[in-house]
Amino acid sequence: MIWWAKRAVLLILAALVVPAVPARAMDPQSCRPVRFGAVNWTDVTATTAVVSRLLEGLGYAPSTRIMAVPDIYMALEGREIDAFLGNWMPTMEADLQPYVEDGSVEVIEAPNLIGAKYTLAVPTYLFEAGLQTFSDIARFREALAGKIYGLEAGNDGNRLIRTMIEGDAFGLRGFELVETSEQGML
């Protein structure tokens, strides 16, 4: 397991186990269901599954709905779900901000991946051939078939890529953004 994933799991365990015994005795039956929203990304799936398993052991009844990021924030606002464990800041800020401003969604300010990067990636053979920065992408148009693979439709990262293409940042005008999944992108 990657070091940051181990650290995240340990932090989650500590946060849940320490108050677990007294909290369980005080929770009314209406608090037993815990509804998670999740995107179909490996890290969020794993984190949500671990927390769900821990909650089950404490007598809760967790459930998970897979949705796109904007839909998750709308579901939080509408109280259709209770929590989302995959908030990537600052990239999701544009989607999240209206809900924070109107008070319908609260962000718990405890980042668990300090220094993590949310960026584009390339296969090793292209990296070794010189595709190492955003400014290198245009030179590799042919090798990339003029395509940049993003995540699922509605994802904030896709919006950032689309903005770069439309604004011709790094000479990307004419590239096609292909909305796919984490698995398809990788």
Please summarize what this structure is.
By secondary structure, the chain is α/β, with parallel strands linked by helices. The chain has 8 helices and 5 strands. It folds into 2 domains: 3-101, Periplasmic binding protein-like II (D-Maltodextrin-Binding Protein, domain 2); 124-185, Glycine betaine-binding periplasmic protein, domain 2 (D-Maltodextrin-Binding Protein, domain 2).
Descriptive overview:
By secondary structure, this protein is of the alpha/beta class. The protein has two domains: 3-101, Periplasmic binding protein-like II (D-Maltodextrin-Binding Protein, domain 2); 124-185, D-Maltodextrin-Binding Protein, domain 2. Helices cover 41% and strands 11% of the residues. A three-stranded parallel sheet has the order 2-1-3. Strand 4, helix 7 (156-166) and strand 5 form a beta-alpha-beta unit.
Jot down its keywords.
single chain, 186 residues, alpha/beta, D-Maltodextrin-Binding Protein, domain 2, 2 domains, 3-stranded parallel β-sheet, two-stranded parallel sheet, 8 helices, 5 strands, 41% helix, 11% strand, elongated
Specify the oligomeric state: single chain
Can you say what the CATH homologous superfamily of the largest domain is? Periplasmic binding protein-like II
Number of helices: 8
Mean pLDDT: 85
Write the layout of secondary structure elements.
Elements: H1 3-17, H2 20-26, E1 33-38, H3 42-57, E2 61-66, H4 69-77, E3 83-84, H5 93-101, H6 124-128, E4 147-149, H7 156-166, E5 176-178, H8 182-185
Parallel strand pairs: 1-2, 1-3, 4-5
Helix pairs in contact: 1-3
